[in-house]
Model the fold of this input.
Amino acid sequence: MRLSLTIIALCFTILAQGQSKLEKELREQFWNKTGAQITAMEIPEKWNGESAVILKDHRYIQYINSGKVVYFKSNKHQLVKILDQASLEGFSEISLSKDSKISFGWGTSSRKETTLGIRIIKPDGTESIVDVEAEEVEEDDVRKIAIPNLEIGDIIDIFIQTDRKERDYDGLDVYPAVESTIKDEYPILDYRIAVEVENDFFLNMNTFNGAPAVKEEETERNATKMYVVEAKNVEKLETSRWYYPLVEEPSVKLQVAFARRRSNEYNAEIFKGEDGERKSVATKADVLDYFDRKFNRASSYSAKEVIAYIKKGKYKTKAEKLKAGLEFIRFNRYTRFFEPIFAYQADIVTGTPKTKCWDLYMGIYENDAQVINDLRAICESFKIDYDIVLVQPRFDGKLDDLLIKSNARVGLKFNTQPELFFFDFNENMTLERFPEQLEGAEAYVGSVIKKKKISSVKRTTLSSSTAAENVYQEKLKLKLNDNKKGFQMDRELSATGHFEREYMFTWIHWSDFLKEDYSKYEQEHFYECGSKKQVVKYAEQFEALETKKLEEFRERREKAAEREWSAATVKDYTSKVIETGRYGDDSPLIVQETMTLNDGYIKKAGNNLIIEIGKFIGGQVELEKKERERTVDIYLNHAKTFIYEIDLEIPDGYTIKGLDALNNSVDNATGNFITTAVMEGNTLKVKTIKTYKSNYLKSEQWNDMAQWLDAAFAFNQAKVLLQKG
Done:
């Protein structure tokens, strides 16, 4: 079933209670309008052509503290008028997960805690209540509730409520944030969200991008406050490619936290306001306070090994020392432990290792804070100037709109030549680039003095990588099979910049980069420590595990090739890693593949052959008619370049026609698509370059971007004729 966007986010479990009792409670609390009153609600004429209209979308959240127990209530009431077949099909069945783990941004609610009521209102005002228990069926992990007798013109009235209590054990609870556009996939006549909190809770809440302001309303309790956002006649959410709704659309963000004692407040992952008062923005003072709390003086104890390693090396610059240090940390504190973890998961090793083997099993880092500590210790040891950086990802909004602390990404900026950054904790940690969602974003920078104290906080804009730094390239050599019904293809795939991370585990297996790491650092494998009997046993078993996992990986790669070249039959697939791209600024990730494509991308026309040459540059964006007009800005993940070089060997006795159509160039400030095609001996050499020159464009630049997108799609349909004789 396809519920509206907000309903999907609020699917709760169903209370097992008598239908009559449930109906009575719902009518008393929420279904207090008759069917005739609801059908009389007027819909603006401009929405007559919509698939559905949400007549009412009301949400209410409440937090109450009572001793050691926190009481939480959340409900949603939505009225939707069905106007065409598409929305009718969408609302004819409601699907819930078996465990119903989604509930308005908070944790799982049990069957005893949640109520779901549904009624159908006909155009003449008559009502029927859906017997939820009778209409529910369970298939695998999905619970489905059919909505019987729903027709175009009907109004579906859905009410969901959760009442839950949680015992407070440690005096601190930070509830997951809610971040949502006010708009939905259907227009909304009446929107409202209300949050009621007791005075000893902390609330961060605000609206953005032109949404109505938060207002305060009176409550029935002296110890609580209510904050409300209301809107009327809200247009539907028009989703687009390359689009950040929380940046462009009216939206609301909120987060609630409870801290019983002041010590709990200190550790709360929230930009803290006053008890019971709404905090609407994070200021520079909040950021400085956050830095002071998060960053104590770096400990050199855990970093002593990496510092000793750097001192032994012949590194000329501070940047080289930092990069060598991170690569050492990456292996010795993280990827080196992959082998024993995989061995443990496969029951090759169990229990506690012997004391002399302890360091081969223990000491793995689990988060970025540990890496940040070591990098700071390196800076202190080698007198490298650095700053602490806080940035909100581009998709979450502007820095001025920072409100939810969990959205903030914290890292280090090293003032070396070139500038280096650290944000990401993963098996491919690098200082040459930072996460693509942070590129071009505004950031707070805290200047570090005396090894710990942050003297000031200023604002800056993080740099963005260039299209030349992020290159995806394919080199294909194509030779027709003897039966002229397919191709033998040799393909080299390479990736640099952000593409490396994107394709790392798609193209190579973990054993490939682990072998490279072990060779570089000349470290023992976990199975090389222990008794002679254990060493032999573990080595043999782990080799068998590797072989098995490599075969599974090869099968996945082959299936991926079959999906990629779905118009043909893929046979005889092989792949080989040339470079992992994990060491050095300019080291790309490179793999080679061979395969046979049978019965695809080639057609016979009498004695001649038609080759779908354009299909060998991969799928291209096809803009639909409704996409031609754009009013929102364009948000790309990063600037990038796609290069395809295709060498097609022309069989003896054939000549090629249609070469001129393969030469084209569309180039402007937003990007380009450039193609060249020439004959060299008996080989057709085609090269295409598609460039996204920036990660952000204004809506006024959309038409320029569409020009080269259209050119790329047109080339994707291109064919050449091989004429016999």
